[in-house]
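WARN no homologs supplied; continuing
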Amino acid sequence: MKVALLSLAMMGGQFTIPVSDRVPDLNVEATCKATVATDKEMGLDLPQSYEDCMRDENNALQQLNILWLQNSDTLRSQCEGEATAGGSDSYVDLLTCMQMADWAKSPPSAPKLRGASKNRSKL
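OK structure emitted
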């Protein structure tokens, strides 16, 4: 199993903690600053503010703290790679990746539709 370990021996403890068992520390501040600058350059009518961007990232982090360990190491690693690709770290992207993977595993079942079928009383 490919899990990096952080030794607490350096801090006086004798325990190890799997690094992958916690949400990665992402530099979302830089991403939010870049997003604000890009929105300004593009002249968007409703650009996202830095504060709104950080609020979204922090909300996503809170949700990730709850669902992180409910997913496999493989999925966590894959989604972390996607959320940090191109140097723009985002908890929102990480959360979205994990939610989409979860949805793909068990998509909601579609209700049976009867419509105007001549055979609807047989359903």
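Confidence is low (pLDDT under 50) at residues 1-19.
OK
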